[in-house]
Amino acid sequence: MPILAPLLHVPDEVFSTSTMELLLNPEYSSSRYLLVCKAWLRIGTPLLYDVVILRTTFQADALAAVLEARNDLGLHIKKLRVEGGFGDSMETVLRLAPNITDIFFTLGMWGGGDVGGFCTGLALINPQRVILTDEVEKPKKNKATTLLVTTLEQLIPKWDNLKIFDFPYSDDLYPGILLTRAECFVSALSKSPALEILGLTINRRTRRFPTYVRKVFELPSFKLVQCRFDPISRGFAFDYPFFPAKYLPDDYYPNNNSAFLAAIEDDVQLRERVVSVVCDPPPPAQASSNMFARVEKAAQLTQVGNSLGPTIEALDVILSGFEPLHIDPMILERFTSLVRLSWNIGGYMFSAPSAGSSLFNKLEALKIDLEPRGLTLLNDWNLTLPCLRELVFKNVNDSVALTFIRRHASKLHELTAGMSVLATAKILDLCPNLETLTVLPARGGWFIIPTPEIFDDIITNFTPPHASLCRLRFKGHTVEAYTRMVENLEPEKFPLLKEIRCFEVEWPSAERELARNLWIRFSELLRVKGIKLTDKNGVGGTGERGS
């Protein structure tokens, strides 16, 4: 048991996450452990069925068949995650799994989905914890979702074991289907005989608690609100995983709410926490270690240079001033170990370094975003940058960027730039050692210009073969551009090319999405050419990772 338990255990984070995993992800089957010997089969079977995750109709049908053949197996199921309707098989599964304590399901049902068996089966269980999700951005409105909502409205007051309910909505709801559903569920929850904990998501825009859930707090059994804070919301005074309902304020900014004031008056630790969050001044410069620093003022740059300069390897410079203030370049020369630099200097000007300066001699990576002055300055300094390998240019002036790229082209192994810059430069001829090329869209002012000719302008307009290119990456382009690229790419021109990463790729996460997913078709076309298509995280359609 001590050996098998961690091998077969499914973490609650995996069971309860609202993020759907890739449908085609070929995870290693934990059931293989049960084939080792009869002892492992006997001991491991209850552990294997403890948490069940159903993602397709075939999985639901298979589970129903197994449970009908072996009724005792259903008794081991404690947690059930259902990512679809899955037809009549779900009634069989729920009927033969009476010990379910935790159930996860979604309202994101496609039209035509069969939830009849699932709705019938829900009446046969009495869960302690229900995790409900919905597609808030594009909610489904069809017979399947309507039937499921109606079923839940009827069953929630009858589930006398229900203690925890994960509510799928925040307060950012306008009149419409989502608000109607939210109020429907709150009405049902307010009649729950045993509800103790309500899970809520704090909205990242308004940072307020939903007002329509407050009638749930009047239940005699109710104890806690479990808050799921967005990352952008962390650091505020009420950043607690559990917060007593009687102290729940209108929002979680420090305010004059009487309940909040009473809470911090009685609780010394809470008061100290609030005071520290509100009153602690920010550090003069954000140096997360002796090797990495971020500066936003010229004085901070001087401070970090004097105290940590020789040890800093990565520096993020974001100067926000607009005065034509000249800064001594000797400040920068103190960063003798600098390897990576993000360079945005606002309106500041640096005096030219002395002849023969060793400024940035170890620099390997340079990033400039929306900063014409900083790049012009580097061009004017005419630095040799002997170790430079990587450039990231976003929203910079084309002619200034071209001047810099041409000066250092032969050294570059990684390059990120707009399409207009790359096409004008004939970048694949200009950079013979380039291994990774990231193509950003061309821009007209603040607007992205559609560029279906991306294939012709960059990938074709060079003297083949390119002997170094391993990875192509594209961001912000149209489907027409990607279609043209995928269909016309000639792999013999890129003998080392193994991965194309498109930031717009969205792999299917549900059974219904599989047949209509355009990226799956692209992936198959490229696979025949020996090239892997990946999404923005470098993940392929079946969960494998690119290089």
General description of the model:
Mean pLDDT is 79; it is low at 230-257 and 271-288. The two termini are 38 Å apart. The radius of gyration is 29 Å and the shape is elongated. The protein has 20 helices and 22 strands. Helix 8 (143-155) runs parallel beside helix 9 (177-189), helix 15 (398-408) crosses helix 16 and helix 18 packs across helix 19 (479-488). With 547 residues, the protein is an alpha/beta fold. It is 32% helix and 16% strand. The strands form four sheets. Strands 9-10-12-14-15-16-17-20-21-22 form a ten-stranded parallel beta sheet. The chain has a domain at 21-26 and 49-279. The longest helix has 13 residues, at 57-69. It comes from Favolaschia claudopus. This is F-box domain-containing protein.
